[in-house]
């Protein structure tokens, strides 16, 4: 195989040297066949360029492979960085959205609280106004009732005064009548004589004692 031609040739040289006989006078020297050794060296020389070219190609391919791997690694890193930046941007957008949502919720809660407080305040003011208005109505009704009660008591008092005055006039008329009846009885004859008694005459009451009822007083 081309991958081991130089190594095989070198191995053949080692094997050949081991088969060579040592020199008689020098123990570390051997006797070699010049032509055979030259053939092995020539074979080694001829195989070297092919191996060198192959190794150069492998090295070149290795560089290409490394460059391609480096490019792919750089592409992957660039894509990863772009994705990371995108995720960071999306994260910032989401964070901004969350922040905005929290701000909107906070403002909504504050507005709702303000509206509830305002409604409660207005309701309390309306309640106090209704109570005050009702109290005014009750006070006005009370005043009219008290005034009506006073008027009724005044009418009742005038009615009592008129009745008392009428009773007094009647008492006066009865007293006068009884006085006339008493005088006629003393001068009359005995009852068994059966004489017709003197005709009783009733005098009208004086004008100052005439019974008068005030119609307007009862209407008020």
* N- and C-termini, Cα separation: 149 Å
How much is the radius of gyration in Å?
A: 76 Å
Strand ordering within the main sheet: 1-2
Low-confidence stretches are 186-215
Number of strands: 2
Q: Return the string of H and E elements.
A: HEEHH
Assembly category: single chain
Tally of helical runs: 3
β content, as a range?
Answer: under 5%
Whole-number mean pLDDT: 76
- By secondary-structure content and strand pairing, the structural class works out as mainly alpha
Largest sheet: 2 strands, antiparallel
Shape: rod-shaped
* Percent of residues in helices: over 70%
A few lines on this structure:
The chain has 220 residues and is mostly helical.
Topology of helices and strands:
Blueprint (H helix, E strand, L loop, with lengths): L4 H15 L1 E2 L7 E2 L2 H154 L27 H5 L1
Antiparallel strand pairs: 1-2
Helix pairs in contact: 1-2
Structural key phrases:
3 helices, 2% strand, two-stranded antiparallel ribbon, 220 residues
Describe the structure.
- There is one protein chain.
- The protein is an all-alpha fold and 220 residues long.
- The protein has three helices and two strands, in the order H-E-E-H-H.
- It has helices at residues 5-19, 34-187, 215-219, and strands spanning 21-22, 30-31.
- Strand 1 and strand 2 form a beta hairpin.
- Helix 1 (5-19) packs across helix 2.
- It starts with a helix and ends with a helix.
- Mean pLDDT is 76; it is low at 186-215.
